[in-house]
Known about the structure:
It is a single chain. The protein is built from 6 helices and 5 strands. The protein is an alpha/beta fold and about 140 residues long. The protein starts with a strand and ends in a 5-residue tail after the last helix. The protein has a 5-stranded parallel β-sheet with strand order 3-2-1-4-5. The chain has a single domain, classed as Rossmann fold. Strand 1 (about 5-10), helix 1 (about 15-25) and strand 2 form a beta-alpha-beta unit.
Amino acid sequence: MRKVVVAGTFDILHLGHLWLLNKAKEHGDRLIVVVSKDESVERIKGRKPVFPEEERLELVRNLRIVDEAILGHSMDKLKVIEELRPDVLVLGPDPWKKEEIEYELDKRGLKVDVVQIGNIYSDSKFHRTSQVIDHIIKDYMPARK
């Protein structure tokens, strides 16, 4: 049984998330999703997530395609990979550096296939959380005077 891990914020679930999870599942039998902790999101994205980590975790955990969902570590994004020891680590289209991840995994003695998924394909114009947020602000927030 091939164990696949994919990680992300998974804030305001949308079709881009589902697309990524389906692509990740193609690489194995068991899909484990690592949901970023709030403090990690703030550090990496420069903003707080819309939903707190426990709610994002619960939403992801309840998706049919997901076999297991856990919270990541705050400071060391690869610590969870050491703990889970997956066969495959799927990286989304965000600006991950595949070579850097492979190098770090190798330094830790981890033999993990790293797969980088390219641009998200979706018929929806909202395949990134930032697009959803921008749309809500632009089209649903009253003009402030």
